[in-house]
Amino acid sequence: MGVGNNMVRVDAIEKVTGGAKYTADLEPKGLLVAKVVRSTIANGVVKSFDLEAALAVPGVVKIVTCFDVPDIQFPTPGHPWSVETAHQDIADRKLLNTRVRVYGDDIAAVIAEDEIAANRAARLVKVEYEEYEPMLTVEAAMAEGATVLHKEKPGNVIAHSSFVVGEGTYQEAVEGEDVVEIDHVYATQSVQHCHIETPISFAYMEKGRIVVTTSTQIPHIVRRVISQALGIPAGEIRVIKPYIGGGFGNKQDVLYEPLNAFLCTQVGGRGVRMEISREETLACTRVRHAIKCHVKAAVKKDGTLVARKFEAYSNQGGYASHAHAIVANTSNEFKQIYHDEKTLESDAYTVYTNIATGGAMRGYGIPQAAFAAECMADDLAVAVHMDPLEFRMKNCMPEGYVDPHTHVACNTYGLKECMEKGRSYIHWDEKRKEYENQTGPVRKGIGMAIFCYKTGVYPISLETASCRMVLNQDGSMQLQMGATEIGQGADTVFTQMAAETTGITEDKVHILSTQDTDITPFDTGAYASRQTYVSGMAVKKAGLIFKDRILDYAAYMLDKEKDTMDIQNNVVVDKESREKLLDMAELATTAFYSLDRSIHITAEATSHCKDNTFATGACFAEVEVDMPLGKVKVTNIVNVHDSGKLINPKLAEAQVHGGMSMGLGYALSEELLFDKSGRPLNDNLLDYKLPTSMDTPDLHVQFVELDDPTGPFGNKALGEPPAIPVAPAIRNAVLNATGVAVDSLPLDPQKLVAHFKAAELI
Amino acid sequence: MGVGNNMVRVDAIEKVTGGAKYTADLEPKGLLVAKVVRSTIANGVVKSFDLEAALAVPGVVKIVTCFDVPDIQFPTPGHPWSVETAHQDIADRKLLNTRVRVYGDDIAAVIAEDEIAANRAARLVKVEYEEYEPMLTVEAAMAEGATVLHKEKPGNVIAHSSFVVGEGTYQEAVEGEDVVEIDHVYATQSVQHCHIETPISFAYMEKGRIVVTTSTQIPHIVRRVISQALGIPAGEIRVIKPYIGGGFGNKQDVLYEPLNAFLCTQVGGRGVRMEISREETLACTRVRHAIKCHVKAAVKKDGTLVARKFEAYSNQGGYASHAHAIVANTSNEFKQIYHDEKTLESDAYTVYTNIATGGAMRGYGIPQAAFAAECMADDLAVAVHMDPLEFRMKNCMPEGYVDPHTHVACNTYGLKECMEKGRSYIHWDEKRKEYENQTGPVRKGIGMAIFCYKTGVYPISLETASCRMVLNQDGSMQLQMGATEIGQGADTVFTQMAAETTGITEDKVHILSTQDTDITPFDTGAYASRQTYVSGMAVKKAGLIFKDRILDYAAYMLDKEKDTMDIQNNVVVDKESREKLLDMAELATTAFYSLDRSIHITAEATSHCKDNTFATGACFAEVEVDMPLGKVKVTNIVNVHDSGKLINPKLAEAQVHGGMSMGLGYALSEELLFDKSGRPLNDNLLDYKLPTSMDTPDLHVQFVELDDPTGPFGNKALGEPPAIPVAPAIRNAVLNATGVAVDSLPLDPQKLVAHFKAAELI
């Protein structure tokens, strides 16, 4: 019972039997269907529409264009609202946009009686544009005379941040020192989340309020953003989140719920459904930012890292979304994970362009940081002929590290133990030796990467979570969270936490898997690997109050002091002797129905979290590189995670598997491509190369379990970390195998063959 | 703002526009359909089934018979559970019954892919019975050698209760006194609630639990009864109650939800819907008990009531349901409403028979009591040549009355003021004079009746209610009640109460109209005219806590003492000067998003009510009786109610209209008829004569508004009272018009013509 056990997922059976109800399963009868009309240019202005042919399609109810929507700009990212204007998200889009910034921009919407009519009409909408040259790269968008995408940012640069750790400049730090320098541009690509369930919602009006059921990670934030986008009070909106088929950050943006909410108001409150197709999802929702990191680094002969200069350019795409928060995160991890003897100079830019908009995606800037930092580490190790693991042991984030800017600290430190564990698991030393001096077209290599990741968003932003518990007549309980199950197993671990705290066994903890902003305790939702840490604290806090109230009733029934009792396995027991005093079922029935003292025992608490802590880890990968084919086969791979105490080891392992799979695609095959006009070239799962089970090796997982004093149950972040170190570990294994340093992702055959040819290996 | 105003119903617009979602509107896709197979005898035993033809119907999934259900007897009435065994409801039926006790008893159920297949198969189920003589009357069931319907009650008498108020027997009291005596049997008929929406539910399994969405007045009790009927813990059941199309007590019985829940477990948790047809509803759900009251009463020449003897026989039908609670209520009101100088002897019997089962129906035994008491009052007045109003003024429940058994008291007393108000409104004295000495076939008359009605079930049973309030980001609030809106306007008055208590205006109080036992605060539901009184107290209690927490946050924001502030019209104001200090919207946004102190402000409270109070009232009716046609035309009618302070006068008036309409049908046309075999003869709305708008005169309503000190807002019962006094007032008006005392309901043409012929008036 309680935390630390391998409880079977609370939703396992219904998910595998098809009983679990997702948004589409909950649609009421008679919904209208909405379809977004999308721009066929990436940069320009809509001048006019010709709707005649579209309106003539039988079944079309209404067409709403960018000229019909409220003149309100709103932000989409799933951040807690900030009461300070300066920290509020960038409001740079309307429900439908006249100014087109991406290919497939939302310029109108058709509402029809059915899907076929909606699609047919959407295709028949004729649009006249004023078209500008598409700017697909940061360089193009920052160039002199580039068209301005958002008038609030005349140079297309959303933000530029910089900091220095240490004294002086990089140049000053290395001048006259006996150091080896490297100078690389490490570049990551645009990739997409590829959650199984594409964005879907339906909206209708009830008692003058708008009710939106949607596949989201952040129902309470969706409510707030709809309120902003439509200019109506939050209380007049109700958002319901059923089971969702994955999100990975893409559903941490409020993308189509505001439009759907608005459309239902345009048809007298009738229900309207809006399902975003896979093609639209790939091209018109969010991607992981492509970031170019220009890294200069200097290292002494003995491997001591002296100084670094970091310059990152984040390609934002058409809309701000999470904007500069991503590359700021990148810069921070680059800073934190290695220690410079002298200086780190850091600059980061986020730049509007005309490619698909970047948003939140598992890792939130850290996969990009890890690619830059871990390529750098290996490239420096190579430069000074040092074992890359030794290089890391020497220069990595030290025990007791405290971030100089955020003051986030390593409350527990498992980084070096992770490295040791991986080293031993993969036989690092033997393999490094074995793979020296290979010849021939197929070569083997071994590589590694490390990372650190904070837990939640404090102190950058607000961390708050609430929980409600309700006693049932049979002594079981309801557990109501604002935090969301998005496939990661949150409902299961919350159940375990509630059991641990209250003494009511898991089988009697009934968690509500649906969030509904009308009734669900407030929580900002699933992102930033925050829920077990932040929302878990709310479970603990509410659980203690709940247990206290139960014992208070036991004290009344038994005429004993409350403090002398405890609850264990659904029984009120004597705190000392553990002797059974009263069944929870009897207590609960009495509490409900006592003629003397009837009370509906519940508890509700908000936990405002003002803590954070670093999770760390490492990936070790072994590869076989077929150089003429440009093919990398991962033959062995292990992730080792320092994520504090595990609430549910089996679920933790599964979480790592999922992250590693994402990392493999990021490393080897995934990339969202655009043609010169900014039109996506592979916006479907045939051409966009997500790894399948055929491409996936056995995934190994190890943990270093340290009891973090700030975690509610000793736990810290695990949601996002597994996706972070895989790509650089593989890149470094390829480097080890072939001696070729590939500085951009993915390591796909075309790129590798070009590199191997250039290195005259084939 | 607040209580006492005519707020428009919160659900008005969506109910008239068809937007409101009832159970059938919420059905998920792909439900199976269940149909109950009903016995074609009223008394007997099922020996065997031949299912071959039924199972051969395409689309039939499964047939479950009375031989397949758990061997568990369970109770159906919607009472709070009692932790004392002696006070628990009678558990006398299984999910499907082998022992048949009513015509149309539930003996099997067909589950099929669609309605047509289910109905077809249900008709093809062949049943072999052992058949016994049907017992349709109390006399038949109590006769020597009558078949035993439930082995636990060998004489078919469920209960016999008796009490005496005063000293000695009736006979002793009248012996040797100069009194006039009467001896009548006043009899009421079986009538049905005729709610627009017939019982409907659908059930499926989710995470191993059963979820039942149903049209009920009492979701939390449905949960408990399903738990008993299936022998599973309450926590494994979830009951959801959407809008419902009326109940009037019939949905205060848990009739088909347990069977529906069981059936879904028989098809692997797939969703199953069960809709009870109008015919089934009339014959196989619940009816208002037909009760025969044998009344002897003695009155002095001056009109002083000396003594009464009351003997009531309640025809229970086949199953106990609410059983003896009904006729016990009848006896009590008969006792309370008039004062005997010497003695009241009272006996009441509840007897199983083979007609449709009696259950709760608006008034819960009091319409029957009022018919007996008010006929008696007029018959006594006639006997001593006294004005019936004067008789009542002299002998009715006095100011300060306290029930000698329950100790329920008149905390406020408006009975005589109601009589005076009605007297004046209808010009009683003038009309009584005018209608003396009429001749001819059409005669006019005026009559009246009074009643008293307690508020809720305390101290007979538990009165407990809970409420939860949640602050939204915009300073509006959610109001969550366990109490149910069943058409009576509960959601609207709770909204007003919340506004009154918190200072947040009604337009910003968003009440949840759906109850869901997983999340809804506990409340036993809508019955006994309890909700504004008992659940209203919970609103007040939670509201005060909620307001205190809001002001606590205001104190933090403004650095002021909490006690110096108040909330008025969504603004925190200085308590003394009423000067504006802070908008609720600003406070709420800060409370949610403050980086310093974030809290999700909510409040939840249980109110355990240990109070009760009498509501009273009178009806005055004027009629024109066409004696040859046996037709009574109500030409004027007014109900005057002493129901404490009115929360919403317009809704209160509407509530009285509905009750008066029910009273008119009860008086003149409604009666559920059975043939000799116990088969219903008029189980449809063509043959069962519910009054239509064509039959309904203008309904007039008056109130005596007294501030009851025990009511949360000075209010007391109003839900059921309006239905009570109408029938006896009309009967007494007919007596006044024709001199003929009709002692049974309804006063339909056949009966009246027979009476007028017997009296040689036609």
TrEMBL record, chains A, B:
Gene Ontology MF terms in the entry: xanthine dehydrogenase activity
Protein name, entry field: Xanthine dehydrogenase molybdenum-binding subunit XdhA
Organism the protein comes from: Hungatella hominis
Domain Aldehyde oxidase/xanthine dehydrogenase a/b hammerhead: 17-133
Entries under PANTHER family matching the protein: ALDEHYDE OXIDASE 1-RELATED, XANTHINE DEHYDROGENASE
NCBIfam families tied to this protein: PRK09970.1, XdhA_XDHase
Lineage of producing organism: Bacteria, Bacillati, Bacillota, Clostridia, Lachnospirales
Enzyme class: oxidoreductase
InterPro entries: Ald_Oxase/Xan_DH_a/b, Ald_Oxase/Xan_DH_a/b_sf, Ald_Oxase/xanthine_DH-like, AldOxase/xan_DH_MoCoBD1, AldOxase/xan_DH_MoCoBD2, AldOxase/xan_DH_Mopterin-bd_sf, XdhA_XDHase
Assigned EC number: 1.17.1.4
Pfam families: Ald_Xan_dh_C (PF01315), MoCoBD_1 (PF02738), MoCoBD_2 (PF20256)
Keywords assigned by UniProt, alphabetized: Molybdenum, Oxidoreductase
